[in-house]
Amino acid sequence: MSTQSRIVLITGANRGLGRNAALKLAASGHDLVLTYRNHADEAAEVVAQIESLGRRAVAMPLDVADSASFPAFAARLRDVLAARWQRDRFDALVNNAGHGVHAPLADTTAAQLDALYAVHFKGVFLLTQALLPLLADGGRILNVSSGLARFAIPGYAAYAAMKGAVEVLTRYLAKELGARGIAVNTIAPGAIETDFGGGVVRDNAEVNRFIASNTALGRVGRPDDIGDAIAGLLTEGQRWVNAQRIEVSGGMFV
Q: Structural domain of residue 79, as residue ranges?
């Protein structure tokens, strides 16, 4: 990567794990481009927090489910990079945006399956494709998967299957982009206390206890656990880590 300030683009960074990762990256010296689908006020707050840390940040609207909008988004990003950083490339892409669906396989609807596919696989595939011309040689791509792609909890079949597809895609991206020196990895969080899935892990004491009792480190994950891991994986010291699935779950179901 360049010796200039590294610019990281994180999708879905106005809240949850994306927000936490953005702040951790800013604290470690990165500049940020954040995307958000709704809640521009939340995104603006994250930008303000990043700027209070002495880093630069821009928030851009993006619906990852709307792949037809990606070429226009890439064009806007090119303009933003030129205006804000006087550069034509950014250094790392974190494909984080997503949503969860909890439904038994027998009850999962075609609409739910299509929505998960649009965001978690088609969106990741085609957004990465659209942004490759703007990603610096020697850069990074980090795709966000889930521990649910390794262990099975009833009700998450559709969601986990999309994450499994992203893990395969990660290896192919690493192979095809290796000539440009771009390393591509997957980070797979375990259960985390956020508002994801209606905040069930955070707010349901029974669920929280169940997960903690099945985690080697004896608790559920916190956003800082994942934000720290993302920031760590994007450091220069991890540049030789490539084509890997790194689970960050505290040892769930080992």
A: 7-196+223-247
- Lookup: tokens for 184: 């591509």
What are the backbone angles phi and psi of residue 167, rounded to the nearest 5°?
A: -65, -40
Residue 117 tokens read as 């596919």
Residue 156 annotated among the catalytic residues of the structure: no
Q: Which of 5, 195, 193, 163 is nearest to 96 (CA)?
A: 163
* Active-site residue, selected from the candidate residues 36, 117, 156, 159: 159
Is residue 218, in this structure, part of any structural domain at all? no
Q: At what angle do helices 123-131 and 157-177 cross, to 10 degrees?
A: 20
Other C-beta atoms closer than 10 Å to the C-beta of 155 total: 17
pLDDT in tens, 16-69: 999 999 999 999 999 999 999 999 999 999 999 999 999 999 999 999 999 999
Token pair 């850069």 in the structure block, residue: 139
| Residue carrying the six token digits 């490759």 | 132
Identify whether 252 is part of a domain: no
State which H helix or E strand residue 34 sits in: strand 31-36
CA 207 to chain centre: 24
DSSP H or E segment with residue 103? none
Q: Which residues pair with 186 in a beta bridge?
A: 143, 245
Q: Does the model's pTM come out above 0.85? A: yes
Q: Is residue 172 part of a domain?
A: yes
- Percent of the chain past pLDDT 70, that is, above it, reads 98
Residue pLDDT, tens place only, 168-217 = 999 999 999 999 999 999 999 999 987 766 677 887 888 899 999 999 99
